[in-house]
Amino acid sequence: MKRFFKRLVVPLAAVFCLQMPVALAQSDIPSLGDTARAELSPAAEYQLGKEIMGQVRSDPAYVNDPVLTEYLSNLGNRLVSADTQTRGELTNDFTFFAVRDPTLNAFAFPGGFIGVHTGLLLATQSESELASVLSHEIGHVSQRHIARMLSQQKQDILIPIATTALAILAASAGGDAAGAVLMGGQGYAIQKQINFTRDAEKEADRVGFQILKNAGFDTTGMTSFFQRMQTATRTYSDAPSPYLRTHPLTSERIADIDARVRREPYRQHADSLDFFLMRAKARLVQDDSEPALQTAAAVFEEQIKSGSKLYMAAGNYGLALIALHRKDIAEAKTRLQQVKKTVGEAAARQSLALNSLAIEIMLASNQTADAVREARAAIARFPSSRALAHQYANALYMSRQYGEAAKFLRKQVQMYREDPVLQRQLARVYDAQGKRALMHMAMAESYSLTGAYSAALEQLDLARKAKDVTFYDQSVIDAREREWKAIVRDDLKKR
Q: Peptidase M48 domain: from which residue to which, for each copy (predicted)?
């Protein structure tokens, strides 16, 4: 399961860097010029990244945990928003996500898609350290290193990129043809060119440092994390971590960052409660087998004994999640109360993770009316939270308030047009209401958002045949069918 994701990410990251050393070694990394913009526009770069993410989201290693994803998104977007220059020429939103993998790694796809391994999240000792890694990856994106590579190439370099991506995906099924694509000189070239160049890394450091500083984090987090990674690699293994392989870390780079830190006045940054809670969640997301849960429980018990308020809260939060996983609702409630007692009710109300856990426990114990009230109050505190929106819709559905659920979800899908989960929830509500045409139309939208256009077209056909389909519905179905069939035709041409 994880092996497939690695086969996808590593060679794709490599092919994006293909021939970059030649392009960058001859310069001091100047400002991106007109040639690079002509080769790969920001819109095309985003579209390329979006297509890759469509495949990534279907892999089991992709972490589909709304609370963890929202935490990373909030942290990442805080960094992106710290400086108006950070986005550069990109106009689209950045996307941050987690990958279920114990190794220390993070990576950026073109167009602002940034992934973090759960192992790296666990390795960070402060929120500033985690922010420093995200800032570095944002630096790669904002400086458009992929477009710079293409400034020395023709636009047909996108053909081997697409071919390699398809070959890697085919390899997940064990196809011999895929192996043939990657075994020749091209595969060797990909492996040889996997690393970002030193110049590119230094620029990402420089930009990332400024982002970290502007966002109000402790800039020493950048040096402390890199130094600890380097020390751990030397101490415990002859092979460098995946992060160090794809982001070559030299003593010169560390010295350069350290010099920048020393020129700045020290700024302390208080770690958020949710940082510690999300590290606990990442430990369980990484592996939820029973032996792993037992090991995690021992870690959480030690954290509770530490005497540190935040570690105690994280320990009890982790044990609450384990209890919920084992369907021990009483224990989950007890552990949640321990967290609230440790941090105080006021702090608990300001924690997205704790609000979400409280609702989840209520739903698990069939306290649907209480869950609806709790979710409504939580949304008032976090009005833009997607995780809480999903939970509120689920609570309304479970309490059989189908009309209210449909009304809420219709507003949500208008605000968040690229959220397949909301469309699936809406389809489930329409199904409960007996609205067959609308149910199939919502399912079609959900499939399309995950790139499954054939399944989406099948759902449109079922919607068209439904007895309750209206003239307006038919118009929408016809328009969507034309749009998605055109996408399928274009995709076939690319293949």
A: 72-260
